[in-house]
Amino acid sequence: MEEQASGFDDHPLAPMVSLELNVATFKSQWQFCDRITEYLSDILGQGHSDPARYSNFLSVAANELVELAFRSTGEPGRISFSLYRGATSNRLRIAFAREDRESNGVRPSERQPLPGAGSDLKADGTIMLQDLATIFRAAIRIEQDGADGMQIIADFPSAEDFQ
To answer: Which pTM does this prediction carry?
Structure first.
């Protein structure tokens, strides 16, 4: 997995869209995960020869990452979802204030390759994220974002040859 985590696209990335919400609003309804995923996936599909196929396929991975953020956010605060397009990949970045993990005995490191969002990632969640990275040929990492934040970053190849 370290090999994939180090395979992030170093090419310049152009911003496509950014969505920022109050965490309390985001966490008020589980259905927001599906709505946000659908919106982001539709945008990621733009510019592909088969946009519906590409967005449907990537929506599975994006949904799991959005749901991970839903379970991991601390209140109060803001959560942002950003998409970027590069020459060889598309990036999804989710940034949010993390829960107080110190009380759980978990100390976040400055940078963690997969897995590593803290107490919310149990063994089955870790396996799920590793499987997503493998299936989608994605590089997924979870990082500390400043003193109180976290970010989930996923680079998906822009190639359309998913199987």
So the answer is: 0.76
Handedness of CA 35, 36, 37, 43 (dihedral sign): positive
pLDDT at 126 over 90: no
pLDDT band at 100 (very low <50, low <70, confident <90, very high): low
- Relative orientation angle of helices 51-72 and 123-135, to the nearest 10 degrees: 160
- Supply the pLDDT for residue 37: 94
82 is written with which tokens?
């950003």
Q: Where are the beta strands (DSSP E) in the chain?
A: 14-22, 78-85, 89-97, 111-113, 139-145, 149-157
Assign 118 a pLDDT band (cuts: 50, 70, 90).
Answer: very low
- Cα first-last separation, the chain: 20
Q: Where are the domains of the chain?
A: 2-11+33-157
CA dist 34 and 83 (Å) reads: 16
CATH class assigned to 2-11+33-157: alpha beta
The string of DSSP codes covering 139-151 is EEEEEEETTTEEE
